[in-house]
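for the writeup, i need someone to sanity check this before i put it in the appendix. the sequnce is what the collaborator sent (i think, or maybe the updated version? ugh). structure was predicted straight from it, no edits. if anything looks off just tell me and ill rerun, i have time this weekend
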Amino acid sequence: MALFNTTSWSLAFKLSLTITAVVTSVGFLIGILMVVQDWKRFQNDLAEKALLLSESISITAPKAMLRKDYWSLYLSLKNMASKGPGARSEHEITDAMILDAEGMVQAHLHPAEHPIGLLFSPRDEDDKALFREAMTVRTPTVLSSGDFSKDGFQEGVVPLFSDQKYLGVVRVRLSVASLFEKTMSTAVIVLLSILLFVIIGSLLGT
């Protein structure tokens, strides 16, 4: 058919088609870069919140650990979860715990799964690697997993000390699921907007 025979196309049509293709490619590239930047910004904000939550627990945890006041430790985690980001449906607190220097559970947001006094039991190999890394932390740190995935998370890790003696660590983990959905929605809007502008521009230019 003549329509699909490029040799029959006019020079003006070929030029217009080429410009449209280039503009579309550049537009999509810019859109992708915008989405990636938003995702990184969301991740950084979430990491900061996870660290702040861990630090809030670390203020009173050392004294409670020395008193072996496990109930107070658990209540601090429970109250944090009820007042934290997850309570406002912004970000879900999926895990929160206080471990001693040996990795024994002093308090956990899910005590039925991780009883007090037992060695913390990671779910899988990735979780085991994060556990080992968290136990070596000596300054407030953020650990992350999942990259660009709704199953990812940001974890605030804060070591606990008393008179310069290492007591253990606080770990608070926030899910990125809501941020992932927000980023995907933004991506669809940005890419569709770019495509619409390209189509309108092409129609006006023909």
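Residues 36-182 form a domain with the Beta-Lactamase fold (CATH 3.30.450.20). The mean pLDDT is 83.
thx in advance!!
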